[in-house]
């Protein structure tokens, strides 16, 4: 089964499955990611959430700044996009992170939570995230990372994700190198425990 079909089939139960991942493995990285995003969100900015899933981040952001934000959600999976239909005044793109239908340097802030590791061509996806971000804009990324985790539950969750086939565990150094190859200004890794990494990139 392709990852696309796999995600389509888990869409109805995704929030429950993902909550378990956050509880036992990725929670600290998610908090670091959300903290970075909320610090950068301002009314009237253009924001794109790549691999938006069921729109959880979008709901939190609109609660924070109201609808005075130009928010676009992108996902390859229509089953996920259809779960965001309750969010008013947003744009939706049914597309992939590797081929984002956008002009260059369009967005002030690009977010990508737990989706980079699901892309077939991660290098191309990273180049796309950088291409569509305005000079001096930011990209916030959180992803499953191939890093040592001490806790038993973290290791068990990692095994579960690998067996389910819903994502890879990316080498953080390789992701950072790929971002540097795209000539970004700076990359900050927000410290967190667990098999995950949060990056804040200044383009
Ligand atoms: C683990 S979920 C993360 C969802 C959401 N960002 C969150 O934090 O809950 C991964 C999402 O990425 C989407 N996805 C998978 N491959 C993708 C690709 N190549 N481009 C864009 N989205 C993709 C899936 O359909 C799914 O919605």
Number of strands: 7
* CATH homology-level superfamily: Vaccinia Virus protein VP39
Gyration radius (Cα, Å) is: 16 Å
Small molecules held by this entry: S-adenosylmethionine
Write up what this structure looks like.
The protein has 203 residues and is of the alpha/beta class. It is built from 7 helices and 7 strands. A 7-stranded mixed sheet has the order 3-2-1-4-5-7-6, with helices on both faces. Strand 4 (107-113), helix 5 and strand 5 form a beta-alpha-beta unit. Helix 2 packs across helix 6. The protein is globular and about 45 Å long. It starts with a helix and ends with a strand. Bound molecules: S-adenosylmethionine. The site of S-adenosylmethionine has 20 residues, from helix 1. S-adenosylmethionine binds at residues 3, 7, 18, 50-53, 56, 75-77, 80, 96-98, 113-115, 118-119.
Question: Can I get a quick summary?
Answer:
The protein has 203 residues and is of the alpha/beta class. The protein has one domain: Vaccinia Virus protein VP39 (Rossmann fold, 3-Layer(aba) Sandwich), CATH 3.40.50.150. It has 7 helices and 7 strands; from the N terminus they run H-H-E-H-E-H-E-E-H-E-H-H-E-E.
Tell me the layout of helices and strands:
Layout: H1 3-10, H2 14-40, E1 46-50, H3 56-65, E2 70-75, H4 78-81, E3 91-94, E4 107-113, H5 122-131, E5 133-144, H6 152-164, H7 172-181, E6 186-190, E7 196-202
Parallel strand pairs: 1-2, 1-4, 2-3, 4-5
Antiparallel strand pairs: 5-7, 6-7
Helix pairs in contact: 2-6
Bound molecules: S-adenosylmethionine.
